[in-house]
């Protein structure tokens, strides 16, 4: 689409978006599909939504999303959280959903369910999570936005937290997404341009327990949805461009009541001990293609071996200098890839630190 067409479409659309809805609510039901992608569809609710209970269960054709066989294709959507909709405004909402099967079991890709079970069992620990979501913006042809066609930009160096033409790409999308998250009451805590040009980061958190996964998934939905309006593609691939270009991660900051209290270093050291025994289990749910990113270069650790250290960006887990000096706070698991499922990442963290629960 040419820019003039986009502009005139926007003017036309605005006329309709401003129409009175006569008391109805447009609810966008959002869920995760069979490949870690995001899907959504819209439902009319005939009065403003004040409580989760005001949102009915719904369903979709799971055979079209890789989530169910054709001969038993109904998958059910169960609302678990809702947020103000920054696109439609007013009483309209975005609804995060779990996926369930007709036999009463969670869908095979419903990773939220198990995570919620283990977190509920250990809620006395008061887990907080803050995740750093890195991603890359691509042009319609799949090459990073703003990169020379059939070529590469100048080597990495000026782009991280960069300012100025040629140093950053698509700041408009990033600004729009930041505002949209705030409007949606997602606890976005910041954003920055990354080391590779057209790569960005934002952080969500600290959030309590399962809320981190709900909010991060909804923030990913918003990012895709907004980039769509600007004609860019979002990729969460952990190593979008091979070679001397940084990969993308989902650094996972973790604390509990015990780590935040004076003397919390002791609880963090105990957590390191437990984490060191489950390297392979964690890597199994820390995203696909993560071995391409975790080469030990570009601020990553070894894929095979668990390490931790203070202020060490080459370790699996880093405890920042301020926390080490205060003797309490949180730690940062740097292993998860940008495409990891935050429900799985936060779920296994609680499981490893506090013990498995049969769900
Ligand atoms: P980095 O220095 O690794 O780039 P960022 O500033 O990008 O760190 O992200 C830090 C993240 O840690 C934020 O999402 C923030 O919400 C989160 N965070 C801060 N304090 C805590 C805490 N006590 N428990 C869990 N997460 C926390
Ligand atoms: Mn239909
Ligand atoms: Mn960061
Ligand atoms: Mn980063
Ligand atoms: Mn980090």
List keywords for this structure.
8-stranded mixed sheet, binds adenosine-5'-diphosphate, alpha+beta, binds manganese (II) ion, 13 strands, 359 residues, 5-stranded mixed sheet
Kindly describe this structure.
It catalyses: L-glutamate + NH4(+) + ATP = L-glutamine + ADP + phosphate + H(+). The structure is a single chain. Strands 6, 7, 8, 9, 10, 11, 12 and 13 form an eight-stranded mixed β-sheet that branches. The protein has a five-stranded mixed β-sheet with strand order 2-1-5-4-3, with helices on one face. The mean pLDDT is 95. Strand 4 (74-84) and strand 5 form a beta hairpin. Helix 2 packs parallel to helix 10. It is 29% helix and 23% strand. It has 359 residues and is an alpha+beta fold. It binds adenosine-5'-diphosphate and manganese (II) ion (4 copies). Residues 132, 134, 194, 201 line the site of one manganese (II) ion. Adenosine-5'-diphosphate binds next to strand 6, strand 7, strand 8 and strand 10.
């Amino acid at each position: 689409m040419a820019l003039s067409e986009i502009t005139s479409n926007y003017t036309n659309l605005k006329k309709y978006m401003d129409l009175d809805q006569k008391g109805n609510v447009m609810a966008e039901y959002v869920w995760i599909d069979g490949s870690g992608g995001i899907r959504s569809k819209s439902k009319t609710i005939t009065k403003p939504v004040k409580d989760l209970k005001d949102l009915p269960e719904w369903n979709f054709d799971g055979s079209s999303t890789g989530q169910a066989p054709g001969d038993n294709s109904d998958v059910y959507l169960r609302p678990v959280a809702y947020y103000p909709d920054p696109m439609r405004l007013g009483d309209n909402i975005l609804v995060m959903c779990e996926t369930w099967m007709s036999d009463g079991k969670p869908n095979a890709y419903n990773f939220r369910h198990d995570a919620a079970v283990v977190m509920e069992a250990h809620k006395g620990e008061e887990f907080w999570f803050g995740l750093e979501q890195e991603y890359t913006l691509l042009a319609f042809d799949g090459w990073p936005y703003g990169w020379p066609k059939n070529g590469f930009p100048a080597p990495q160096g000026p782009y991280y937290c960069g300012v100025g033409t040629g140093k950053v790409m698509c700041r408009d999308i990033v600004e729009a997404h930041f505002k949209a998250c705030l409007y949606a009451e997602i606890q976005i805590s910041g954003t920055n341009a990354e080391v590779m040009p057209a790569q960005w980061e934002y952080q969500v958190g600290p959030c309590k327990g399962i809320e981190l996964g709900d909010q991060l998934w909804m923030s990913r939905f918003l990012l895709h949805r907004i980039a769509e309006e600007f004609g860019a593609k979002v990729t969460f691939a952990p190593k979008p461009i091979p070679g001397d270009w940084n990969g993308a991660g989902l650094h996972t900051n973790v604390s509990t009541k015990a780590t935040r209290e004076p003397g919390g270093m002791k609880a963090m050291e105990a957590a390191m001990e437990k984490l060191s025994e489950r390297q392979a289990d964690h890597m199994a749910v820390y995203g696909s293609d993560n071995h391409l990113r975790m080469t030990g270069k570009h601020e990553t650790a070894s894929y095979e071996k668990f390490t931790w250290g203070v202020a060490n960006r080459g370790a699996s887990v880093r405890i920042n200098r301020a926390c080490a000096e205060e003797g309490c706070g949180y730690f940062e698991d740097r292993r998860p890839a940008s495409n990891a499922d935050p429900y799985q990442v936060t779920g296994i963290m609680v499981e490893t630190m506090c013990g498995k629960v049969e769900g």
